[in-house]
Amino acid sequence: MLSLIILLILAFLIIFPQKYMLISLDAIQIWYKILLPSLFPFFVFTKILTSLGYVENISTCFKKITYKLYKAPPISAYVFFMSILTGYPVGSKLCADLYNQKYISQAEAKKCITFTSNSGPMFIIGSVGIGMLISIKSAYIIYFSHILGAICNGIIYRNIKSENANINTQNKFKNVDTTLSSCVTDSIFSILLIGGIMVIAFIVIEIANSLNLFYPLITLLSKIGIPQEITTSMIDGFFEITKGCLSVSNLNLSLSYKTILSSAVISFGGISTILQAMAFLKNIVTYKFFIKQKFTHMILSTLFCVLLCLIFF
Fold first, then answer.
1. Strand locations in the chain, DSSP E?
2. Is 103 helix (H, G, I), strand (E, B) or coil?
3. pTM for this one?
């Protein structure tokens, strides 16, 4: 089945090369205009902090909070704060870095992922709230709903069986020059990986739309009162977060409804974002677990967003 799907994709690329070249360029433009300048510096400097071994010292003051809430090591607080400041997929990459360098166990990394796979203010407030919805109020409602959803999502998964972390102290006195070069190299690979996945996701979405693969679902939902435009927008968001939010912003709905739908799209993250995260987490968690915890994050964030919209709109 997978081989047939890949052959079908190749057939579309051969028959309509100009069309899919432009779609690939759209994905690359989003990558180099938004993701490359915003994520690459954070990838480099967070990797340096982790490699030099100072992250554990920074996180010590959060020891009681992280244990009471999540039964997780204090270093998870560092990952959480970095994730809500930078966005997808920084939290997942940091979890993978900490696990690979033996700062945390696999079970602890799994817990950490459930509240650190977050979008950041540059995308939520800048791109979606102000840029697409043209509302600073919506921007902050979505952002705080997203954070509250993440905090509560981690509590749901706090009882995952944990182990004692094998703390690594050998890297604390690494040569800075050596660390810098290795961290830059690793970060270049990571940011290129994200760009490649985005291109593939954009192409697959367009092919699925061309084949009307979701027409039966759209028709079924329209019969129970959900407009086709809303279903189409949410399907776009299911695959790619930016495309989904843009589709939602163009709907003929009230601002509060568009805010709630955007919150759902952002908290799930889309298949493209999930693939980016799993490129780093493949040795830690399964796709099934990661998608499950993103669904619960989406539900919690949406509920918080509904409550805040009722208060502020």
1. none
2. coil
3. 0.86
